[in-house]
Specification:
Structural class: mainly alpha
Shape: elongated
Order of helices and strands: HH
Strand content: under 5%
Number of helices: 2
Number of domains: 1
């Protein structure tokens, strides 16, 4: 019971932390100056982290396996 609870909570917090970390890193490198290719890579990293956070929160739970009679 607690395993399922902690996995969900940890995945939500880690996806949030990933968005913050990636955004911070991309912003720091952008402040130093980036080429257009680096901008594209940074943008894709931020979009990927945001997509991960949205998927973690919006993905439907799997129904429990119930035996068929």
């Amino acid at each position: 019971m607690f395993k399922l609870l902690t996995v969900g909570v940890v995945s939500e917090y880690m996806s949030c932390a990933a968005v913050i970390l990636v955004s911070t890193l991309v912003g720091a490198y952008a402040a130093q100056g980036m080429t257009p290719a680096q901008w594209l890579g940074g943008l894709s990293a931020v979009v990927g982290a945001i997509a991960w956070a949205v998927i973690v929160r919006a993905w439907p739970d799997t129904p429990p396996n119930t035996p068929r009679a």
